[in-house]
Design a protein that fits this description.
Elements: E1 8-14, H1 18-31, E2 36-41, H2 48-58, E3 62-66, H3 73-86, E4 91-94, H4 106-111, E5 118-122, E6 129-131, H5 135-152, E7 164-167, H6 168-173, H7 183-196, E8 201-205, E9 207-209, H8 220-240
Parallel strand pairs: 1-2, 1-4, 2-3, 5-8, 6-9
Antiparallel strand pairs: 4-7, 5-7
InterPro entries: DPM1-like, Glyco_trans_2-like, Nucleotide-diphossugar_trans
Keywords: Glycosyltransferase, Transferase
Family: Belongs to the glycosyltransferase 2 family.
Length: about 280
């Protein structure tokens, strides 16, 4: 590997998650006591940001980034990534604040970095479990993953997964300024960029549980964005049929991606129950 594991920062975007934030952070620190947590709050009207400030005052492992308004999941994670890269964190984690991503599974995800650069907490590899999701949500999720897998030519079974771990090097070398995706599409975008950039991607099974408190942020616009962007990327991949390397330290084999997202054909560095088959 390019670098050993080191300090861990867990980026937790929040919008109206006051009832969930405290229990999730407590579980996280029980599972990974040495991890720091960065709460990225989008001016939640329910006082989530104020609660995060209280938690930060009581625990130096908790930090808070306040944003002026609700600007989307992707933008929140990118702001968190920038904060991580300003520090000396070697491992950066994405995790939801609603309790659907079990902090107890995080040690296994971090351990998987021994032979990977990006690790996805997957619902759809053997051992993965989904609890308390209505049939409609499961259908949308599985269909979206199948569609993305076929359109982009990668074998990742849960490319929309939001519980994931990055080595610092991945975030340093991918051109994050070009990422404009939001919602589930942001997760697809980041995973595909990692594959195209030559990084090793693994999936580790998790138990995903639907939130018990608060409302889901899922809406039709998130599904439409993912469908449209993936269609554009997939079409570009078929037209070019040329691998594109999306890392700042390597020349590209084709023009770099615009804000619309990456283009190109995945190589064989991704791992999802085995190597990529092209």
């Amino acid at each position: 590997m390019a670098e050993p594991r080191g300090r861990v920062l867990v980026v937790v975007p929040t919008y109206q998650e006051r009832d969930n934030l405290g229990p999730v952070v407590a579980r996280l620190h029980a599972a990974v006591p040495e991890a720091d947590v960065l709460v990225v709050d989008d001016a939640s009207p329910d006082g989530t940001g104020e609660l995060a400030d209280e938690m930060a005052a009581a625990d130096p492992r908790v930090k808070v980034l306040h944003r002026e308004g609700k600007s989307g999941l992707g933008a929140a994670y990118l702001a968190g990534f920038a904060t991580a890269l300003e520090g000396d964190y070697q491992v950066v984690v994405e995790m939801d604040a609603d309790g659907s991503h079990p902090p107890e599974d995080l040690p296994a995800l971090i351990a998987a970095l021994d032979d990977a650069d990006v690790v996805l907490g997957s619902r759809y590899v053997p051992g993965g479990i989904v609890r308390n999701w209505p049939a409609r949500r499961q259908l949308i999720s599985r269909a979206g993953n199948l569609y993305s897998r076929l359109a982009l030519g990668v074998p990742i079974k849960d490319i929309t997964a939001g519980f994931r771990v990055f080595r610092r090097q991945v975030l340093e070398e991918l051109d994050l300024d070009q990422v404009a995706s939001q919602g589930y599409c942001f997760q697809i975008d980041m995973a595909w960029r990692a594959v195209l950039g030559g990084f090793r991607v693994r999936e580790v099974p998790i138990t995903f549980t639907e939130r018990e408190r608060g409302a889901s942020k899922m809406d039709t616009s998130i599904v439409v964005e993912a469908f449209w962007r993936v269609a554009c990327w997939g079409a570009g991949r078929l037209v070019r049929r040329t691998p594109v390397v999306l890392r700042a330290d390597r020349p590209s084999a084709a023009p770099p991606p615009t804000a619309e997202g990456p283009s190109g054909q995945a190589g064989d560095e991704a791992v999802s129950d085995g190597p990529v088959r092209t």
